Amino acid sequence: MAVICRQLATMYHAGIPLLEALSLAAERGVSATARRLLHSMAVSIRGGASLSEAAGRETRFLPDLFVEVVSAGEKGGRLEVLLRDLADHYERMQAMKRAAVSSLTYPGLQLVCAWFLGTFALGIIRSVVGVLNGSGGRFSMHAFLFSYLRFQGVALFTLFLAAAVLVVLARLGWLRGIATVLMRGLWPVNRILEKFALARFYRGMSLLVQAGLDIRQCIIRSAAMTMNPAIEADLMRAVPVVSRGGSLVEAFSKSRYLGRIGREMLAVGEQSGTLDETLQKAAEYSFEEARTAVNVLSKVLQVLITLAVGGAVGYIVITFYGNLYGMF
After folding, report:
1. Of 270, 320, 326, 322, which is closest to residue 117 (Cα–Cα)?
2. DSSP SS3 for 56
3. Is it the case that residue 189 has pLDDT exceeding 80?
4. Closest CA to 198 of 81, 76, 281
5. Which of 9, 123, 180, 183 could form a disulfide with 84 if both were Cys (CB 3.0 to 4.6 A apart)?
């Protein structure tokens, strides 16, 4: 999505016609799915659809955020800016994802090694202790390796089967409700998602205000960009207040999700006449808060994985010496 948005924004800025831009982007698509998607959108546009309508027909592949942003950009005349901003958003999310993955790679490898080496060591301990206790036969490394490989094969097959079932259920949409409940109720993941949602709201609101849209439409479309029904409903309560002539500060005074800093920045933007710039700063502030929370969460997960590895190693050592001294 970052590549697609960046290419479309750049070609739109260069004055390349939309159909030609989609064809060029498809030729440089990052995947076969992206190429088919862009070609399908081009076919819809040749049939008379707008870019937002063409995107709306591809919601199976396109994120809802992209569809909302393109629709708002077309109606507000800021499509190029919104696409560039959306590309920045996806690039930041990708950078954050890479940072989180890189911080968890080493402890993850430790956990995998603890599993394979731990089960290997425990298997040897059980086999040797069984022989020394007179259970019959003698220890055979060849037989043990065959038994160990068979055990790992069954374990990996079970893991693969469970992952395949989860993927199928996710594609069918059966896990969407469960995932939504977990994401919204699991701390600190819910707080991180709220910060990202508010960052999208502030960013979309800033660009739509700059595009000259009516403030009510700005709120409605920016609230939809949060992709969070609870936050969207909370923000939409400001629309009737604005319709009656109230200020944005009054409209969002009862909001559960816009904190004190957000309301203060809205007040400063309204009074100074630089609402779009202030909202942009609020978006950056919310995004930085979310990124900090993600870094903290990755560090916590790293510590938890390290503790799990330490627990596995401790269990192996205690089991070994317990069995060793138990023989005597």
Report:
1. 320
2. helix
3. no
4. 281
5. 9
pLDDT at 75: 77
Q: Which residue has the tokens 């202030």?
A: 278
CB atoms within 10 A of CB 284: 13
Q: Where are the domains of the chain?
A: 2-89, 94-328
Q: In degrees to the nearest 10, what's the CA dihedral of 222, 196, 73, 260?
A: 40
**Rounded-to-integer distance, Cα 289 and Cα 196, Å:** 9
Q: Give the angle subtended at the CA of 246 by the CAs of 243 and 249, to the nearest 5°.
A: 125
- Establish whether domains 2-89 and 94-328 are of one fold: yes
Top pLDDT among 188 and 328 is at 188
d(CA 42, CA 40): 5
pTM across the whole model: 0.68
The arithmetic mean of pLDDT across residues 296-314, rounded, is 83
Specify the CATH superfamily of domain 94-328.
Type II secretion system (T2SS), domain F (1.20.81.30)
CATH tag, 2-89: 1.20.81.30
CA–CA separation, 279 and 213 (whole Å): 15
Amino acid occupying residue 226: T
Phi, psi of 54 (to 5 degrees): -65, -40
Q: How does pLDDT run across 221-279, given as a tens digit for each residue? A: 888 888 788 888 999 999 999 898 888 888 998 888 888 888 888 888 888 888 888 98
Across the chain, mean pLDDT equals 83
At 102, list the tokens: 């890189």
Alpha-carbon distance values, 117 to 91, 114, 198, 308, 310 (Å): 38, 5, 45, 14, 13
CA torsion sign for 297, 301, 306, 308 is positive
Three-state DSSP class for residue 292? helix
